[in-house]
């Protein structure tokens, strides 16, 4: 067996190992609870119908898409503009401000939980979409990441656009954003996934069931089926599959850009 | 009117050195002005100041009769061609060329027609739908020119636009730029470190060194009457020979003068000629195709001479370098500034190596 072949097989085995819990949960989601507990085979789509219909997962899915989508769009817009300013403009206190942005990366998100909660409570934004979205929009990491990318874009491109008659916003929108698309899409996916998987903040900020996101809805399934043995695991797995499906699709859509974004600067 | 006046332009950076020291130039409407100088002399900075990409620290820039110091680049109505072309990589050639018009809200039909017209002029029509990444260096350079030409402007700034091209393409593009200037009747300010480009393209050449303008004059004047030793040595290939004037026979000049002799002003002789001459020993010869560059040791120091191959003396190892004192340039040894042409003194003897 050649070395390449062994490496391929090794990589395949490692991939399967990582994938096996996901594959097993998807497999389980198509079984009835009875079949699961008795070790027999009995395929059904009922778990999906129940989680979407009886447990309101369609609503949670929509909430998650709205919240994650808007956080991603607004977060990217803010981060891109901030990154452009930090990368291209020299202004008094600019370095200090950028250091402050980077410093936010060192603050654990849980520390901001209570201040954010109190602030939103004071302005009456708890139990609203705005309450779920606003605190997540400012993203120091995205601003830092995009600033580094934009710094790698030749400044001559901006200058050419200025000479062509562009305003700074036009330079950003018509030149920088298209050129930085791999980085922006990668960052967008990162933001989307982290917001999609966000559990603590929606749990704290929302008590209205109509505003539950998928992660809260998923946890609710356990609450509704308390006690080991009585949990309908195939139902939980169907709901989990529903939860990861949009992210998986999103990943497949931007995978090419994501890889380019991650490896940027590695090769010319 | 697109004349450009630069008056006492000073540029310095915070916590950095002063880059330009009071540069004044009066570039006429429709003139092809070339700024030339070694790396770091401030020529590109000067161009960027005219473009508005950087702010002057002192002095005035007037474009078309209007003071432009505080104008944003987009308000100066100037087109610029960058050294690395700066084409928008995500746009096709057509979009690149038409982008400036699009920003000025020119109707789509008009800008498309204009882009196609310019592309035809630059032989880019087959590539209109390609992106810059799929073009060769020469094609990219032409797109950069097309982008500038599509704009309805009469002032062009070019920052070493040919420096990334190979020699053959550079020669071809040089001709095209010169022809284009004739067609457009535009004011062009062109920056280069290549003296051949400077001399062949310019109506007038500005020679810069260390942020100071050394001379701004026609190529002929710059070559034939350099204002100082730096200009004399910078322009000319091979470079001008310098020696102490007192070491050259047959020359009447102040004792502290430096004499400059263009290589082509030296004539080669197998035996001592009638006029002033230096005995020389050839240390190296370089074949350049039609001619030969000879590096020689003489009593006045190292000298370089050029000659057609067929005119090489039978024994090129040892020969005489004759010269006409009227073609000798004199410079002040201390300041380097030009001195009046030397007088010939009655010929008495040649110096031997």
TrEMBL record, chain A:
ABC transmembrane type-1 domain sequence ranges: 61-254
Record field: transmembrane: 59-84, 96-117, 129-150, 171-193, 233-254
Keywords: Cell inner membrane, Cell membrane, Membrane, Transmembrane, Transmembrane helix, Transport
InterPro entries associated with the record: MetI-like, MetI-like_sf
Compartment annotation: Cell inner membrane; Cell membrane
Entry's Gene Ontology BP terms: transmembrane transport
Pfam families per the UniProt record, alphabetical: BPD_transp_1
Membrane topology: Multi-pass membrane protein
Any one GO cellular component localisation term in the record: plasma membrane
Chief place where the protein resides: membrane
Role summary: Part of the ABC transporter complex UgpBAEC involved in sn-glycerol-3-phosphate (G3P) import. Probably responsible for the translocation of the substrate across the membrane.
PANTHER family, per database record: ABC TRANSPORTER PERMEASE PROTEIN MG189-RELATED-RELATED, SN-GLYCEROL-3-PHOSPHATE TRANSPORT SYSTEM PERMEASE PROTEIN UGPE
Record-stated family: Belongs to the binding-protein-dependent transport system permease family.
Subunit structure: The complex is composed of two ATP-binding proteins (UgpC), two transmembrane proteins (UgpA and UgpE) and a solute-binding protein (UgpB).
Listed name of the protein: sn-glycerol-3-phosphate transport system permease protein UgpE
Gene: ugpE
UniProtKB/TrEMBL annotation, chain B:
Record's keyword terms, sorted: ATP-binding, Nucleotide-binding, Transport
Gene Ontology MF term list: ABC-type transporter activity; ATP binding; ATP hydrolysis activity
GO biological process: carbohydrate transport
Classification via InterPro entries: AAA+_ATPase, ABC_transporter-like_ATP-bd, ABC_transporter-like_CS, ABC_transpr_MalK-like, ABC_transpr_MalK/UgpC-like, Mo/tungstate-bd_C_term_dom, NA-bd_OB-fold, P-loop_NTPase
GO cellular component, one term: ATP-binding cassette (ABC) transporter complex, substrate-binding subunit-containing
SMART domains: AAA
Sequence ranges assigned to domain ABC transporter in this UniProt record: 4-235
Name recorded for this polypeptide: ABC transporter ATP-binding protein
């Amino acid at each position: 067996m050649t070395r390449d072949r062994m490496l391929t097989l090794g990589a395949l085995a490692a991939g399967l190992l990582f994938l096996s819990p996901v594959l097993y949960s998807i497999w389980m989601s198509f079984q009835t609870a009875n079949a699961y507990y008795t070790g027999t085979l009995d395929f059904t789509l009922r778990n999906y119908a129940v989680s979407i219909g009886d447990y309101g997962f369609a609503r949670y899915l929509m909430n998650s898409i709205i919240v994650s989508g808007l956080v991603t769009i607004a977060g990217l817009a803010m981060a891109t503009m901030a990154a452009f300013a930090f990368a291209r403009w020299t202004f008094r206190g600019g370095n200090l401000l950028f250091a402050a942005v980077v410093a936010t990366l060192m603050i654990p998100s849980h520390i901001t939980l209570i201040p954010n909660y109190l602030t939103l409570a004071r302005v009456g934004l708890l139990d609203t979409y705005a309450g779920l979205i606003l605190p997540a929009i400012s993203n120091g990491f995205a601003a830092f990441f995009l600033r580094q990318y934009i710094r790698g874009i030749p400044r001559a491109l901006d200058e050419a656009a200025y000479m062509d008659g562009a305003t700074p916003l036009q330079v950003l929108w018509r030149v920088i954003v298209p050129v930085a698309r791999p980085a922006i899409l990668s960052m967008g996916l990162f933001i989307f996934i982290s917001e999609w998987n966000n559990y603590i903040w929606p749990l704290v900020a929302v008590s209205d069931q109509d505003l539950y996101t998928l992660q809260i809805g998923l946890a609710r399934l356990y609450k509704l089926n308390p006690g080991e043995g009585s949990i309908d695991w195939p139902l939980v797995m169907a709901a989990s599959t529903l939860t990861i499906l949009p992210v998986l699709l999103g990943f497949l859509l931007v995978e090419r850009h994501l890889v380019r974004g991650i490896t940027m600067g590695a090769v010319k | 009117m697109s004349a450009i006046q630069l008056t006492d332009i000073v540029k310095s950076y915070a916590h950095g050195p002063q880059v330009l020291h009071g540069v004044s130039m009066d570039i006429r409407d429709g003139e092809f002005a070339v700024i030339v100088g070694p790396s770091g002399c401030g020529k590109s900075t000067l161009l960027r100041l005219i473009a508005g990409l950087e702010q002057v620290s002192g002095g005035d820039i007037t474009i078309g009769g209007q003071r432009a110091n505080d104008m944003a680049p987009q308000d100066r109505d100037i087109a610029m061609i960058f050294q690395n072309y700066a084409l928008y990589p995500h746009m096709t050639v057509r979009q690149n060329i038409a982008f400036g018009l699009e920003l000025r809200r020119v109707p789509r039909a008009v800008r498309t027609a204009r882009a196609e017209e310019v592309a035809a002029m630059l032989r880019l029509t087959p590539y209109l739908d390609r992106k810059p990444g799929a073009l060769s260096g020469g094609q990219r350079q032409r797109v950069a020119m097309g982008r500038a030409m599509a704009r309805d402007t009469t002032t062009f700034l070019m920052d070493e636009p040919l420096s990334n091209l190979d020699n053959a393409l550079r020669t071809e593009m040089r001709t095209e730029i010169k022809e284009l200037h004739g067609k457009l009747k535009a004011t062009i300010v062109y920056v280069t470190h290549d003296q051949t480009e400077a001399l062949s393209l310019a109506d007038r050449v500005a020679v810069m060194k260390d942020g100071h303008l050394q001379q701004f004059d026609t190529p002929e004047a710059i070559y034939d009457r350099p204002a100082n030793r730096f200009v004399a040595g910078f322009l000319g290939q091979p470079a001008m020979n310098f020696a102490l004037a007192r070491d050259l026979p047959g020359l009447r000049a102040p004792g502290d003068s430096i004499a400059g002799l263009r290589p082509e002003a030296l004539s080669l002789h197998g035996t001592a000629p009638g006029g002033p001459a230096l005995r020389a020993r050839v240390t190296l010869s370089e074949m350049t195709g039609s001619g030969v560059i000879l590096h020689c040791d003489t009593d006045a120091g190292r000298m370089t001479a050029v000659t057609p191959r067929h005119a090489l003396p039978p024994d090129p190892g040892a020969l005489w370098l004759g010269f006409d004192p009227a073609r000798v340039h004199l410079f002040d040894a201390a300041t380097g500034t030009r001195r009046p042409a030397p007088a010939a003194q009655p010929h008495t003897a040649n110096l031997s190596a």
